[in-house]
Write a structure and sequence with these properties.
By secondary structure, the chain is of the alpha+beta class. The protein has helices spanning 2-15, 21-30, 37-46, 64-82, 102-112, 137-147, and strands spanning 49-53, 59-63, 83-89, 92-97, 117-122, 126-131.
């Protein structure tokens, strides 16, 4: 019963904007699953659900993995919208961004966790991306360009 309830909860939060425990309990009841508030609270803890900002500006329940993916998608969009140019120099990639955007764009790069990248250093509108090998620079540049499409 618990596994079925957990599966239903995950389906509900994936397809609806569930923002309270009461709403979650109502949705479960409408599907024939009667639960108490204490059960809902335990389920939320066991499933590691968190509240995230929805597209409509309200908060809703989501899995940590879903929240992480949304943050990553948002960071990639920010990267794509802030990059002005990219140039290679030996094993470095120098990225020029819009003013005051370099830190956020560098954070997006760091969040990618690409094995080819040793690290980033951001200023106000420039990022130095240290690539582990000169041979990997063109591959990393190609992947950056793909992110911008």
């Amino acid at each position: 019963m618990k596994a079925m309830r957990h599966a239903m909860i995950l389906q509900l939060i994936d397809t609806m904007e569930i923002d309270t425990q009461e709403m979650l309990a109502e949705q479960l009841l409408s599907r024939g699953i009667k639960v108490t508030q204490a059960t809902i609270s335990r389920d939320i803890k066991e499933l590691r659900l968190i509240k995230v900002l929805s597209d409509h500006g309200t908060y809703k329940y989501a899995t940590a993995e879903r929240a992480e993916k949304n943050i990553s998608d948002r960071m990639i969009r920010i990267f794509a919208e802030s990059v002005v140019s990219m140039t290679e120099a030996e094993n470095l990639i120098v990225i020029k961004t819009l003013p005051a955007s370099a830190n956020v764009a560098a954070e997006a790069i760091d969040g990618l966790n690409w094995s080819e990248i040793a690290g980033t250093l951001a200023g106000e509108n420039s990022i130095f991306v240290a690539v582990k090998s000169k041979d990997m620079v063109s591959t990393v540049l190609t992947r950056f360009h793909a992110m911008m499409k």
